[in-house]
Automatic annotation (TrEMBL):
<protein>
    <submittedName>
        <fullName>Uncharacterized protein</fullName>
    </submittedName>
</protein>
Length: 106
């Protein structure tokens, strides 16, 4: 085999490998840029979600406090209502369940 032919084959192989390496570097650079953009978007979305969570919390807490106040206010009236129902039930039971005797007719 001719040395010049071997050298030419070796040379073209090196150039081919060099071009492949350059293409991979460019592709890697492109992927790195895309990754950077993706991280930036993710960070801004995380910040947006955090802001929305705080906004929801700020709006929900007063509503929750109002609800708790309403429940606390209604507790005594519910207790009294239950007591009245129990008394009515007891009276009804006394009236309905009292011993009843029919007069005896001869």
């Amino acid at each position: 085999m001719d040395i010049a032919a071997l050298h030419q084959g070796y040379s073209s192989n090196i150039y081919s490998t060099h071009y492949q390496l350059e293409a991979l570097k460019q592709q890697n650079s492109k992927y790195q840029q895309e990754l950077s953009v993706s991280k930036e978007q993710s960070s801004s979305e995380s910040q947006r979600i955090s802001i929305l969570c705080k906004e929801i919390e700020c709006r929900a807490l007063p509503l929750l406090r109002d609800f708790q106040k309403a429940v606390n206010i209604s507790k005594p009236s519910m207790f009294h209502h239950r007591q009245r129902l129990k008394l009515q039930k007891d009276k009804t039971n006394q009236l309905c369940c009292a011993p009843f005797s029919l007069p005896v007719i001869f």
